Amino acid sequence: MSGVDIHGARFTFSCYVYIYLGVAVFFLGWVKAIFSVPALVLLGFCLWKHWKELREEESGRPLIVRPWVLAAAAVFSVLFCLVAGQGGFFVQAGDWEKHNHVLNDLVTSHWPVCYHNDDGEAMLTYYIAQYLVPALCGKAAGSFRVAEIALLIYDAIGIFGVLLLLFRVVRADTVKKQAVSAFVLVFFGTCLFLGKALYGATGIGSTDISGAREWISNAVRLQYRALYTNLRWAFPQAVVPWLATLLFFEDYRDVRLYCLIGAPLLLYATFPFLGLAVLMAGVVVYRLFAEKDRAALFKEVFSPQNVAVAVGFLIPVVYLMGNLTGEKVPEVGFSHIDYGTLPAVYFCFVAAFMVYSVVIFKRFQDDLLFYLVNISLLLFPFFRMGIYNDLAMSGSIPAVFLLMVFVLQALFAYSRCMARSPKRMIVLVLLLAVGAVYPMEEMAGVLKEPISLKGAQAGSLRAWARRDGTVGAAEAYNYFTYDHEESLFYRFFSRREPDEWKEEFRYDLGQVVSFDDTAQDAHRYFTQGVSWTDLDHAWTDGNGAGLYLYIPDHGEEDLRLHLGLHMVYDAPQQMIVRCGDEVLFDESIEAEETMVTVPIPADCVREQMLGLTFQFPDAVSPKDLGESEDERRMAFGLRSFVVE
């Protein structure tokens, strides 16, 4: 029968190429060539060596996928990503505000991305690898919308690889098994519906199990995301972590490849990297006590590939350490969860995934990885880090995904002996149905909303890079290295020159800059306080805004800022403009479609940089006025500005 063999070395190696593509862009775009080129040569050599090993070891039964199934799998991957929010065609989850900000900053800013506010300086320090290739496409085209479409395509390619690799590891060798595998991939989740019902039955928890889909309790923040929820809310923590987890699963006892498989997750998803590292460490510890030849294990741990990849990833480690070791508020730091007064929360939470493990235990009772998966899922709830306990929520991603793999393997095994013993098969199908309740409910909510062709609002993280209390801890402390010019990465490895950041605010006197929703629109000059572009204008958002301009052609003359207004919301509105402590403009404005002129003394331009702060003391939200659910505190609709 004609088709494509996905058991071969070419397909396996293509998965590695996909994983390392974002890593390569990071090195080339963020790191000095003197360091990036040797690191990439080292990593490239390790990949080439592994390619040779794959070719030499290629064996086993082929797994042929028909051409029409491949086509269907490709369409499935695109649809899966579409309903998860990629491309901005379907309604996006709350976390997409962050994703769109990161993607837009990568499109419009020089790399590394740095922010300069009156509250200080910061560098974007985040797991950015999944954004980089799409951002590069958007940067080349000068369009955030192009980057959005590129992200959809790029993620769909990754999901296509995940699906085919899943076919291989669960031995889905029939069209029926392949269809079941795809369905389970979309809708697999822990049986949280049962866990919440059990928690309600104790009389301690709420009996309302319809709300807060992925949370079992308001008392303790615990969540093991369903796969669809993970892709929809945190796609960088889904695509490549799933790929790497499947590659690890195929030969998890081969310690020689651990760094090659796991190290890239540092730049894609730091907490899933930790989750996969826990499983890898479990294998090493078990072998250390179970095997007599510890010298052989030592050689595997410190294999040339592991050592070379570890050395190659020292720079990404230094990059991330600027965030991890920086200033943090207590609520985002690492801590221990004490269940002394609420043990029912823990037991009901773990029951939601243990029901799967109990049903399939007999089949995997001799499988080391099965035990490690369950042990890690039992231990994560005792620790927390991040506002929403991202440590448990995201660190569990590899283990939850592997639990799905074990369930699929058991499902196919039970189907072969259905006539003799149907009970386990029936129970497992029922559990899968229960686990699919919340993912299906979430997807149904997405499909109810209208489709949009214009994409999402871009925005920027610049307004979040503040430690003055004007933004929440989750925004201020998750994405940045503050005072980055003193950080080890920026000082020694960054490809930026000391004053290169100024170019992002470069402005030519007399240039009219509009809010036109392009990569170069007026948002790039506002560090905070301006919402997204709506056709040809953007509303101020909040009680203040900041404007930065780099004016290399400025002499000693005074300047004037002409600010074109589209509308005044709930007129009249007061506007105050300051340069430092000096008030340049203070008037109450009522007329719409007008031009505000602000005089700027020459000494406001210091070292060719002009910084102005705006205050809007009368700003109010449509929600406060009972007009809509819009919570933006608006004062003026801005159309354009020009300085001359």
Summary keywords:
644 residues; alpha+beta; Jelly Rolls; 3 domains; six-stranded antiparallel beta sheet; 48% helix
Give a concise summary.
The chain has 644 residues and is an alpha+beta fold. The protein has 24 helices and 19 strands.
Record the SSE blueprint.
Blueprint: E1 4-5, H1 9-30, H2 33-57, E2 64-65, H3 67-83, H4 96-108, E3 114-117, E4 120-124, H5 129-141, H6 144-169, H7 175-187, H8 192-201, H9 227-233, H10 239-250, H11 258-262, H12 265-268, H13 270-290, H14 294-301, H15 304-312, H16 314-324, E5 335-336, H17 343-360, H18 368-379, E6 383-384, H19 390-395, H20 397-416, H21 423-435, H22 437-448, H23 473-476, E7 480-482, H24 488-493, E8 513-514, E9 526-528, E10 530-534, E11 537-540, E12 544-550, E13 559-568, E14 573-579, E15 582-589, E16 595-600, E17 605-606, E18 609-615, E19 636-643
Helix pairs in contact: 1-2, 1-5, 1-10, 2-15, 3-6, 4-5, 5-6, 6-10, 8-17, 10-20, 13-18, 17-21, 18-20, 20-21
Count of beta strands: 19
| Proportion of residues in β-strands | 5-15%
How is the main sheet built?
A: 6 strands, antiparallel
Mean pLDDT rating: 90
Overall domain count: 3
Uncertain stretches of 5 or more adjacent residues? none
Large-scale geometry = globular
Number of helices: 24
Helical fraction: 40-55%
Structural class: alpha+beta
Radius of gyration: 27 Å
- Could you tell me how far the N terminus lies from the C terminus, measured between alpha carbons in angstroms? 72 Å
